[in-house]
Design goal:
Layout (H helix, E strand, L loop, with lengths): L9 H15 L3 H22 L2
Helix pairs in contact: 1-2
């Protein structure tokens, strides 16, 4: 397996990680943004999974 085979998972994984960090930050605005990023990142990850 080449590294280029896994580059399409880098974007969704980064979005999930940033969303999680923002979600646990104790501010309502960042928690809402983090939850949105978690949702968008998980949808993007599942979309890439079937490709």
């Amino acid at each position: 397996m080449a590294l280029s085979d896994h580059l399409d998972e880098f974007g969704p994984a980064t979005m999930l990680l940033v969303g999680f960090v923002l979600f646990i930050f104790p501010e309502p605005a960042t928690s809402a943004l983090g939850a949105g990023l978690l949702l968008l990142g998980s949808v993007w990850w599942f979309y890439e999974w079937n490709r």
